[in-house]
UniProtKB/TrEMBL annotation:
Residues 241-372 form the GmrSD restriction endonucleases N-terminal domain. InterPro entries: GmrSD_N (IPR004919). This is GmrSD restriction endonucleases N-terminal domain-containing protein. It comes from the Bacteria.
Amino acid sequence: MELYMSRIENELMIDGEITSIYSIKTSQMETAKEILAFQNGELIKTVHITKLNWYKNKIKIGDLILLVLGGDRKPWKNGLIAFAKVISIDYLKESSKNYELDVELLWKLPAEMTPDDFYIYPDVKNAQNIGPSINGTPNQAIGKIDKKALFAIFAAIDNIFPGNELFIKEIIGEKNFSYIQNVPVLRNTIPKDQIEEDLLVTHGDSKGKNKNFSPKNISIDKNTYSVFELNRKFGNNLIKLDSDFQRLDVWKTYQKSELIESVLMGLPIPIFYFNEASTGELIVVDGRQRLTAFFEFIDNKFPLTELKIFSEYNSKYFKDLDPLMKSRIEDYQIQSYVIVPPTDDSIKFHIFDRVNRAGTQLNKQEIRNALYNGQITKFLKKVVNSAKFRQSTSNYFVKDTRMKDRYIVLRYMAFEYYFESLKYGYEYTDIDTLLGNAMTYFNKLEESSFDRYIDKVQKGIDNAIFYLGNDAFINKNNKSSRPINMNIFETQMYFLSRIPQSEELKQVVFKKLESLFQDKNFIDSIGSFRDGKTKIETRFKIMDKLLREVNV
């Protein structure tokens, strides 16, 4: 759907037609259920909306709708949830003020967006049902949205849910996508995202660029697999798609169908990249979407659609194909490169990064999650999805899709590993090496030994809630922005995991931790060069001093 800027303030030009933009807030149970049940990539999904009254004689077929969930005591979180377009209008009786709509769902957001999510975008301020300055609006309220607000809304979405450019472009078009990059933002209210910056893979300043790797430590095999063989491996749990490490740009059915049609035509497809784990599993570095399409089609999970050459197979599942066509798919040869042991982990890290640069770039934690898959990655996923972790971090990471929450927990655990390893002569070089070494160590631990670290994490989180409540893990010198600070997280967790839970200590502990924000040495240790050895040792020595002062 290609959109072009219109001179009319509240409208857009879509395929040569003037199109208006509306928001609809609904609390109807059936309507909400249909929206929430929608999966991006489905074939046409329509939703019926009733009891509308405003704009009865103005809204028209093709208009763009922003769907917002509302209502009190409903089993959903209120907020913007999906985009749709009008496909039919029922004006009911001429005497009636009400009318009804059928809309086609275009895209559902990964999570609801509340007015707070748009606070730094002034153009969204007065967007009805959406903007942060809007007082409560009645359910089934329909409001008109101007172009500036629409682009600012998409800018907020692109910021909170990165990796969804494909969906956004399908709604607003390639030409207009650039507008969302330049919407006004209240810069002075945006806290610098220290965690996101820390996870960024910087190509020009790679940690390993000065290392002299021997060719003997780099082993990459070129292999050919049939689709049938890969599907068999997947069925035997020998291929790790690891969907929670990869990105959110999930293919739609027509994209999967296009891949299948290419195979039926005998066309070549891009090379796949795998990392072979020590257990023999193949972890997908590049090609997850394509493999998922193959496996799902063979498993009859979607029908072919929008085929151009083999149009006679549209609407057919794998089971409906004749034996020759099935064989073409199953016998298709896939070219791949496999990174095999004993390739150095830091080299694997760079291979992951380079291979994935063409798409939405993976950050460091997403790469680690694939490289060191095991009991540590399972635990990190479990703990950050727990109610207590979310409570202790004031739900700061609820909408995170890039593993920032797992990263801060891993950092804390890695420092616990580091201080224990010092007595065995461990030498600190840089934070990325430490995190990789720690994950390797945790994956090799027996369950009983690993439980010691789990207990520390759980105790730290429990005590954060007990002693600090909503003040846990934030920089008190920048309280207005309230982002979770990773260095404060790791140091407070270190401290809190070492003290008992006691009402008598409550006031003392709170004051001791609050005093850190007047300690110039501590503040300096979480500032620039925060992951240098001296800064790390400084802040944790300060925490050891606090522990002695509370006599534990």
